[in-house]
Amino acid sequence: MDSPVLHQRLKRYLYVVMNQLATSSTCNHFHRIEARLARWLLMTQDRAETDQLQLTHEFLAIMLGVRRAGMTLAVIALQARGLIRYQRGAIKVIDRPGLIEASCECYSVDCALYTKMLPVL
Fold this sequence. Notes:
It is a single chain. The protein is mainly alpha-helical. The chain contains six helices and three strands; from the N terminus they run ααβααββαα. Strands 1-3-2 form a three-stranded antiparallel sheet. A hairpin with a 2-residue loop joins strand 2 (84-87) and strand 3. Helix 1 (4-30) runs antiparallel to helix 6. The longest helix has 27 residues, at 4-30.
């Protein structure tokens, strides 16, 4: 089936994903673990559409490419600021605006590109 609209939408989606991969690579190199964790939690929450995320320290460490000990410190820091609550593999986003502020600018850049390239139909 030949659908120009679907083809254009898929190309735009691919463009957004490739940009997010490039941004993630840069982010992982230049930004602190805490800011990267905040960004990753926000992006996950955007896709899951829930405040409750079932994520372990080990899984988060793998996703962000850091040691588990570093991830534990980042989770504790975000929890101490009242942005998230972590308990046995479950993270609850408590203060989304605060988490956005704690994240690096990469999150805002990703959101702006996504909104521009893939507007809601």
